[in-house]
């Protein structure tokens, strides 16, 4: 019986896909909740998800949903995250 192993680069790619989908959904959900004056997703949750890899989804969600675009910390965190995770994705784990 042989076992196959998944390379770390593939695991990292799958992780980024999943966390960015989650991040995008969270930004959209928070915008919807804000429009209906309901309980919101805490900013530290949105920023935390962006920091752990969801920066692509966070940045896309910010611009598609027009959400948190006036708060500089969201732009800074998401843009820095895109730079860091792009480096990891295309240089370290290529």
Structure description:
This protein has one domain. It has 3 helices and no strands. It is mainly alpha-helical and 94 residues long. The mean pLDDT is 93.
Task: Name a few traits of the molecule.
3 helices; single chain; 94 residues; mainly alpha; 76% helix
What would you say about this model in short?
By secondary structure, this protein is an all-alpha fold. The chain has helices at 8-35, 43-64, 72-92.
Structural class per helix/strand content?
mainly alpha
How many strands appear in the DSSP assignment?
A: 0
- Proportion of residues in extended strands: under 5%
Element-by-element helix/strand order: HHH
Name the shape in a single word. elongated
Number of helices: 3
Number of domains: 1
Topology:
Layout: H1 8-35, H2 43-64, H3 72-92
């Amino acid at each position: 019986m042989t076992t196959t192993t998944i390379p770390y680069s593939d695991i990292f790619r799958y992780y980024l896909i999943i966390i960015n989908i989650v991040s995008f959904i969270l930004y959209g959900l928070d915008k919807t909740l804000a429009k209906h004056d309901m309980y919101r997703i805490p900013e530290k949750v949105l920023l935390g998800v962006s920091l752990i890899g969801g920066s692509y989804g966070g940045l896309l969600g910010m611009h598609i949903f027009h959400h948190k675009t006036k708060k500089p910390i969201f732009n800074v965190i998401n843009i820095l995250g895109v730079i860091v995770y792009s480096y990891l994705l295309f240089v370290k784990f290529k």
